[in-house]
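pipeline: protein-struct stage 2 | run 1193 | 3-methylmercaptopropionyl-CoA ligase
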Amino acid sequence: MGWMNDETGLNKNAANFVPLTPLSHLRRAAHLFPDHDAVVYGNFRKTYSEYYARCSRLASGLSQLGVAPGDVVATLLPNIPAHCEASFGIPACGAVLNTINTRLEAETIAYIFDHGEAKVVLVDPQFLPVTRQAIEMMEGQAPMLIEVADEQAGYPASGDNMSYEDLLATGDPAFDWVMPKDEWESLALNYTSGTTGRPKGVVYHHRGAYLMTMGTVVSWQLTLHPRYLTIVPLFHCNNWNHTWLMPMLGGTVVCCRDITAKAIYDAIADEGVTHFGAAPIVLNTIVHAKPEHRRTFDHIVDVFTAGAPPPAATLAKIEPLGFKVTQVYGLTETYGHVTECLWHEKWDNLPDEERYAIKARTGVLMPMMEDITALDPETMQQVPMDGKTPGEIMIRGNSVMKGYLKNPKATDEAFAGGYFHSGDIAVQHPDGYLQISDRAKDIIISGGENISSVEVEGVLMRHPAVMLCAVVARPDEKWGETPCAFVEIKEGEVADAAELMAFAREHLAGFKTPKTVVFLELPKTSTGKIQKFELRKIAKDL
């Protein structure tokens, strides 16, 4: 060991060890980029010095309301500037940020208020009715409401609660931020939509979020002053941590309240947006935009997509429009994306079909992670990397949650064997690239054969009339289960069940072909994920 046995005096101290936190990014940006656009939303435009002052006023105002370090402050807000300010201002007073999914029903919101013990909630007038309902259903102490008006979107304050701007007016722009003394301190609380039972409260620490912001800069190859559009909801893994990273590069956050093709094209053309993250469903929206909503632009827009593998058909149509799409993957439990489909030049000249097949892979670990691989969940052994053998995606690294709030049993199960168990089933290619074949619960087992719903969906999405589809298991007396396809048809197109089944049969084994096709508008979560559990209920009752 040599001299390492004698490290006398080589200790951590205030000069050489500072707890990592994304709050540092904005404190630095206020000095480095004081006059640069920080947040833009229609006629709302704030520079970094103004953004920092407003976040400081928020932290100060909350402290004066009695919010103490460790208390929870919740939000029920769309992607508006106040939500960006909350990302910094709430932790800057030592509180824990709890961004709540704005599409939840009152009963679940009540559960989250009770379980997270929110002291204060910042709420948009659009979500006041459901928030009031939720408060009536609560068992514990009701949180104080602060109303965040959005005049330009047509949501003025009701006048029944203290307004956000009034709260800021009470605050001190020179407020001394409460920085974490320990980087393991809790930064945020995010409830993950359980497919069964109550949502679980995922707890983030400052260190994980800081490293997530650093890793994303490397993976997305970001340079100074990106112009970033908030399509990913700020309540979804805290906008995949993107809002926390933008000050590091003096980036501009362009807020998008209503995710429409027109709003996206306008933001790219008028605000010069260079980057955004989005679910594949949003890519679909862009591809199928009406001619009058499209705008021309002369730069490439970099897109991270996650939530489901993007169909090759969608990628083939969106790339020529000026978008460079990279698939990433992660969970609420991992602060957002932790794998990327890292592109190698050797793939550039492959035929389109092969190129898009590679682009649809789940990918490899991002730089802030230690190991992400497919293991046998029973033995915790590596599965063969043959592109065929399924295993469960297992994750280790610094951007993994602390655990589930008030649920040690679920936390222990999630971390069994020293890895986070994702619940996602994947194969691994010889080059180590993972490819999700299914959520464990999305595998359809028909006559003893495993059918990947993702594979069947990929085929149906290639039919020219199909806008979106989702395939789930339908109980069957003979086969146990058969694939049931739910399809949303493009405006102005027609197709019937027989035609789609015949089309699927041309590309799939007989047993994989849907035995039922149902036409309807697919139920979706706020992040654009198709709610398969709803479809399973329908399939069961058919």
